[in-house]
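Example 9 (inverse folding). The structure is encoded as follows.
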């Protein structure tokens, strides 16, 4: 029997542990599986997130347990190097990872496509784009498990409206607008909600054991899909599917792509809003019309039961994963020419490559750069590569990039102007890897400067959030 290792979020009282993990375990029942909490990885195996150092402790664990398949999420790249992943696939260990939050993180997720045997996407639009880089990409939509949920059909509805989630973006504005206009609202989530609501509305953090019971006792579940820093940037989260599982009427942000992907229709399966005024009108209408609430909750639940039940989705996915034969990512690797900064290769040689990287003494490059850059070739963009120095990551978030950390498209070599070892690029003509692909072994004033600026930037943005 094939040995499988699942490295997943197994923290208590998080939605993944509540919803996905049980479905995964049911889908893999009867298989030889080890489960590890991804947030215990550093304690178990050490911290090897840089470009080239292979995590031998982790490799030894896999060898000792004869692991042949790994299923995980993209957080794993916070703990292991890209070259560790490349070594595993070279040894024919199938490596599959969920990418996650595809609408917002597409520019990050594409960097993993060339490293994974089977990347897993949630959203159909981004899934289709991922396929152009790695044709083994698998689409596993966000949903819910309908396993043993029939008792929710008879739950008494003794609360009007419930929302569970963080207090970010326009969420406080939307919910206070409801509350101030007479809607009986119950809010669960982090302590930031206490700044907006008294104890009769804000009920604190909800335990997993009580999560679905509280939703099922509500007439309406709110699913707010706006992103934290941009109300116009929408993304599908788990909240709509909580409503389907717990058999409550769903009111959500109007998001046509979401509705189209799941075959949903407004006023048949759910109600939607595009402003706080429309949200208030919609909630008020539904609270007065129990027959409409019951109809849309029944319809939405039926769609999820018939087409998107996690137990069925994960069962099909793991059947595909277990039947896969070759671990090698199905990609066309980028062709990279490493040259010294003063070299001038002939034109007939240049046409054989996609990117040029200027070598520098004291810089060690990952063997996996060509796999990561595979996703960028068609864009013809400059690619800023994250670096590692003494265990710290220098992320290239600004326009001036150390020449040793920039992949230059061959077709744009004439645009490169190097001054004091730096190359200027723009947001419009460049992309980032968000993965460390080189390591500096000696002191470099630019690396220290980038680390300091990065630290200050992170402090400032965290204060703004």
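The amino acid assigned to each position is listed next.
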């Amino acid at each position: 029997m094939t040995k499988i290792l699942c490295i997943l979020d197994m923290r208590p009282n998080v939605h993944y542990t509540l919803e996905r993990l049980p479905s995964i375990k049911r889908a893999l029942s009867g298989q030889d599986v080890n489960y590890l909490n991804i947030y215990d990885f550093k304690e178990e195996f050490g911290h090897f997130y840089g470009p080239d150092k292979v995590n031998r402790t982790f490799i030894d664990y896999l060898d000792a347990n004869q692991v042949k398949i790994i299923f995980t999420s993209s957080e794993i790249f916070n703990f292991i190097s890209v070259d560790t992943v490349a070594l595993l696939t070279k040894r024919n260990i199938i490596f599959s990872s969920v990418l996650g939050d595809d609408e917002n993180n597409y520019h990050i997720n594409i960097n993993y496509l060339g490293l994974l045997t089977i990347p897993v996407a949630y959203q159909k639009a981004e899934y289709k784009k991922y396929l152009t880089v790695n044709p083994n990409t698998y689409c596993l939509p966000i949903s819910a498990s309908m396993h043993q949920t029939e008792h929710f059909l008879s739950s008494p509805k003794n609360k009007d409206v419930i929302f569970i989630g963080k207090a970010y973006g326009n969420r406080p504005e939307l919910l206070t607008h409801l509350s101030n206009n007479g809607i009986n609202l119950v809010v669960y989530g982090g302590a930031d909600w206490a700044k907006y609501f008294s104890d009769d509305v804000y009920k604190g953090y909800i335990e997993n054991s009580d999560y679905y019971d509280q939703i099922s006792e509500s007439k309406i579940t709110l699913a707010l899909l706006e992103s934290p820093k941009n109300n116009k940037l929408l993304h599908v989260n788990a909240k709509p599917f909580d409503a389907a599982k717990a058999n409550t009427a769903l009111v959500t942000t109007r998001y046509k792509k979401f509705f189209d992907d799941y075959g949903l229709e407004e006023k048949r399966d759910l109600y939607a809003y595009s402003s706080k005024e429309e949200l208030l009108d919609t909630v008020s209408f539904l609270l007065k019309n129990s027959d409409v609430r019951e109809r849309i909750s029944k319809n939405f639940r039926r769609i999820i039961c018939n087409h998107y039940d996690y137990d069925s989705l994960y069962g099909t996915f793991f059947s595909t994963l277990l039947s896969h034969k070759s671990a090698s990512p199905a990609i066309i690797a980028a062709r990279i020419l490493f040259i010294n900064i003063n070299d001038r290769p002939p034109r007939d040689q240049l046409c054989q490559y996609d990117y040029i990287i200027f070598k520098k003494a004291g810089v060690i490059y990952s063997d996996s750069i060509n796999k990561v850059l595979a996703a960028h070739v068609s864009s013809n963009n400059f690619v800023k590569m994250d670096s590692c120095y003494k265990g710290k990551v220098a992320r290239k978030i600004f326009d001036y990039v150390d020449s040793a950390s920039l992949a230059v498209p061959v077709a744009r070599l004439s645009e490169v102007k190097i001054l004091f070892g730096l190359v200027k690029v723009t947001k419009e003509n460049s992309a980032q890897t968000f993965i460390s692909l080189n390591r500096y072994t000696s002191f470099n004033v630019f690396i220290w400067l980038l680390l300091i600026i990065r630290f200050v930037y992170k402090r400032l943005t965290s204060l703004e959030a």
